[in-house]
Design a protein that fits this description.
Layout: E1 7-9, H1 11-19, E2 32-35, H2 36-45, E3 56-59, H3 72-84, E4 87-89, H4 93-101, E5 106-107, H5 109-118, H6 124-136, H7 144-159
Parallel strand pairs: 1-2, 1-4, 2-3, 4-5
Helix pairs in contact: 2-3, 5-6, 5-7, 6-7
Length: 160
């Protein structure tokens, strides 16, 4: 997942990773693009302290009515991702569905952890702890099957 392509995030992963004390994992993507709408949503809800330590670039983006079911931050993030030719980080199911429909690579907070593990930025225990923190310390709803799949993936890779 990491590489030279632009990475855009909506508000969800910023909040959830901060709640799990894992916001620093975003540094694996270099500069993360954040639409001004997302920045405003984040500031309205209270900016996590860790947000200041991550390399973000705020961007203005025009949105249209293609995604009326999405909130403004998700729409802006999707529009910016499409414009920048990158991938989007979102935990919102409707935004993930739209990204898939438009052929945009999409990952959520769990994907950020799994990529950090796959790239050697986290060892297996740290990755498991991060997944557990997302499950128990963040406001992100994670289904049990998703958590179990992530854990199996880490454990299988660790045993190879």
């Amino acid at each position: 997942m990491s590489g030279s392509r632009p990475v855009v995030t909506d508000t969800g992963p910023l909040i959830h990773l901060a709640e799990a004390d894992a916001l620093g994992l975003l540094d694996q993507f270099g500069t993360v693009l954040v639409p001004h709408t997302v920045d405003e949503e984040l500031r309205a809800g209270g900016v996590p302290e860790a947000f200041a330590s991550v390399d973000f670039e705020r961007r203005t983006v025009d949105t249209d009515d293609r995604w009326p079911e999405l909130d403004p931050g998700e729409s802006a993030a999707l529009a910016l991702t499409e414009r920048a030719g990158g991938m989007i980080l979102t935990d919102d199911m409707a935004a993930r569905k739209r990204a898939n429909e438009f052929g945009i690579e999409v990952h959520g907070s769990i994907g950020v952890v799994l990529t950090a593990y796959a790239d050697g930025r986290l060892d297996a225990d740290e990755a498991i702890d991060s997944v557990r923190a997302l499950e128990h310390e963040s406001t992100l709803y994670l289904s049990k099957p998703l958590v179990n799949r992530a854990m199996r993936r880490i454990e299988e890779d660790a045993s190879e």
